[in-house]
Amino acid sequence: MPSVSLQRIANTSTGKITSTAAPEPQLLQLGPDLTVYIGAERDARFIYKEIYQDNCYDIAPLSSNPFIVDAGANIGLFTLYMKAKYPSAHILAFEPVPQIFDLFRRNLALYNVPTQDVDVYACALGSESVTSKPLTYFPNAPGNSTFVPEEKDLLRKALPAEHYQRMIDRSSAGATQVGVPVERLSRFLDGYPDLARIDMFKIDVESWELDVLRGMDDRHWEMVRNVAVEVSDLSGLRDDIEALLRGKGFWVERELASWSYETAPTYTVLARRDGKGSSSTEP
Q1: Which of 108, 126, 177, 248 is most buried by its number of CB atoms within 10 A?
Q2: CA-CA distance, 74 to 142, in Å (whole number)?
């Protein structure tokens, strides 16, 4: 397959990221029609199950040519899933970790995703612009990489069985810090002068969700139809996230993740502007 370069580093204060050495990526078949470059097999299979088997982001029918924002793009499984489901979709994606960003680009190229359909930025989203912010990168569990590593300590303490605690310890082994740029989402959305509708805003950023949500101005919030946010109760932010979304005019509900631990529940908070969401019975 021809090589396609999809890196789009904005000519702003984000600048470029200096990548650290990483092992040669490996290809892994995750499903009958999906083989991708991965950083860690367990992590990739987990994310694949969430998106392709549990359908955690199939929250509402979208338009035939949706505009989608992917915050926390990881190796690109959500983007590939949405492009397969909505071939005319335009996706604005963000992945700040250099090693993961490289895998994302490789996977888009592997499936010949047109460069004009996916704008990819090597930065994090947040409530304000920061040239370089320390992010903890977990090479054994890249999807857990976070600006808030202390929550991983809370998770370790909350898990009931020694087995799960050992699993967390293995996943956290080799953790390193990398400085990454942070930008407000509205700064990027301003680059689409004809944009009138944001069909879906997906957020999976490991306890940084509220900061991401606060990085969008009201003029852009008015365009958003659907939001899906993965949030752990350990972060203590779920109520604030739901309140913010309701304040923007959304019907809000939440679904408990199928893999969630009883002592450390994780939810997908779903917000829809079209149609009333059901009242959650979860505490």
Answers
A1: 108
A2: 8
